[in-house]
Amino acid sequence: MMSTPKISSPVLEAKDIVKHFKVKDGRVARAIDGVSFELMPGETLGLIGESGCGKSTLARVLSRLEEPTGGTIHIKGQDITHLSHRQMIPVRQNCQMIFQDAVSSLNPRANAGELVAEPLRIHRLVPKSEIKDRVAELFKGVGLNPDMMTRYPHEMSGGQCQRVNIARAISLNPDIIIADEAVSALDVSIQAQVINLLGDIQSRMGLSYIFITHDMAVVGVISHRIAVMYLGKFVEYSTKAEIIRNPLHPYTQALLDASPIPNPSRSKRQRQIVRGELPSPISPPSGCHFHPRCPKATELCKTEKPVLREVLPGHMVSCHLV
Ligand SMILES: Nc1ncnc2c1ncn2[C@@H]1O[C@H](COP(=O)(O)OP(=O)(O)OP(=O)(O)O)[C@@H](O)[C@H]1O
Ligand code: SF4
Ligand SMILES: [Mg+2]
User: Fold this and answer.
1) 29 lines ligand 1 (CB under 6 A)
2) 96: closest CA among 156, 170, 15?
3) Is residue 3 a part of any domain in this protein?
4) Residue nearest atom 6 in ligand 2 by C-alpha distance
5) Rounded to whole angstroms, how far apart are CA atoms 176 and 321?
6) How far apart are alpha carbons 124 and 103 in whole angstroms?
7) Structure confidence at residue 69 (pLDDT)
8) What pLDDT is attached to residue 263?
9) Is there a contact between 28 and 5 (Cβ–Cβ < 8 Å)?
10) Which of the residues 41, 100, 177, 310 has the least number of beta carbons within 10 Å of its own beta carbon?
11) Which residues, including other chains, have CB under 8 Å from residue 185's CB and lie 6 or more apart?
12) Which ligand is located closest to the Cα atom of residue 281?
């Protein structure tokens, strides 16, 4: 069968990304242990996994806030893996990050208008005389009344502050936004509004997101594709529909079982809960890293590492039983 021709090239390509941290006694934490994926224009990749599995480290490596220990990162075809700080300036403009703590991400001494104007000034994207109008436009674009421009971060709600962070990020017209738990600290109703806003912005601007969360319900709404991470590796990676309808890795199944989203695959198998705690990436278990917690583990799982492979078209899983 002929493969579907690629209609466009990826905005971001990560190949075999490894990030080791040296910890005490000369030991090493393998925070990211060989991650590869492609992010397409207009695509949202949801990155999910429990606390400590390496989501933020991957985000920080992709945006070069951390040096990768191994692997390569291409953004729009350019190898950015070893660019200098100076060379990274235009790349940073094109690849923005939004963090969980909306209020403390903002300079408390600047008002909302100044905060949104700042990136435009620094990068000289708009003539001085047009900055005010552009800021007002950006406010409207993120659902904030331009009257809010005089407010300081402590005078705004978490949701409003996150809208200011989003306005700052999109002001530079990036191709990529990496959102690390960007809605996790917000009330559920506000979460939904911010997720809708991100969806609207994506349709308007055609940008791509890497959307990091530990919440399956959130990732199930916003993503086109989902990567499930466990101890620094992708253990399952496919379209959202496949992951939700046909989860094949026992860890993904357990994450879905623990989430409130309707899960048609659940009735076909016994409900699973992830037992125990995530092991340390300093001394990961032998064989399949998930084996001490996996309800389906066999003897083979204790000794043999499963490899991430394509088991159905576009559906990657690393499990001996799949
Ligand atoms: N600077 C560092 N030095 C040593 N170990 C680190 C460092 N940063 C992260 N780690 C380790 O790397 C692993 C992954 O951490 P990371 O923060 O990326 O996880 P996460 O998936 O983002 O978790 P959370 O959901 O809690 O945000 C953890 O074991 C963490 O302790
Ligand atoms: S390889 Fe074995 S331990 Fe790992 S997820 Fe599959 S069944 Fe479970
Ligand atoms: Mg994190």
Assistant:
1) yes
2) 170
3) no
4) 319
5) 36
6) 25
7) 97
8) 65
9) no
10) 310
11) 100, 101, 102, 158
12) 1
For ligand 1, the distance from its centroid to the CA atom of residue 233, given in whole angstroms, is 13
Q: Does the beta carbon of 132 lie inside 6 Å of ligand 2?
A: no
Our count of domains for the chain comes to 1
pLDDT at 1 over 90: no
What is the pLDDT at residue 135? 97
**What is the phi/psi pair of residue 35, to 5°?**
-115, 130
Does the beta carbon of 100 sit less than 6 angstroms from any atom of ligand 1? Answer: no
- Both tokens assigned to 247: 């989860």
C-alpha 250: how far from chain center = 22
Contacts of 210 (CB under 8 A, 6+ apart): 12, 39, 44, 45, 47, 59, 62, 176, 177, 178, 179
pLDDT digits (tens, 9 = 90+) for 97-107: 999 999 999 99
Whether 100 is in a domain gets the answer yes
Instruction: Name 42's Cβ contacts closer than 8 Å, sequence gap at least 6.
Output: 202, 206, 207, 208
Tell me the CA–centroid distance for residue 287 and ligand 3, in Å: 25
Domain contains 68: yes
Q: What is the residue whose two structure tokens read 């962070």?
A: 165
Our CA angle for 285, 61, 314, nearest 5°, is 70
User: Where in the sequence is the domain holding 30, given as residue range(s)?
Assistant: 12-317
Q: What digits encode the pLDDT tens for the residues 193-241? A: 999 999 999 999 999 999 999 898 899 899 999 999 999 999 999 999 9
CATH number of residue 68's parent domain = 3.40.50.300
Has this prediction a pTM greater than 0.90? yes
Q: Which ligand is nearest to the CA of 249?
A: 2
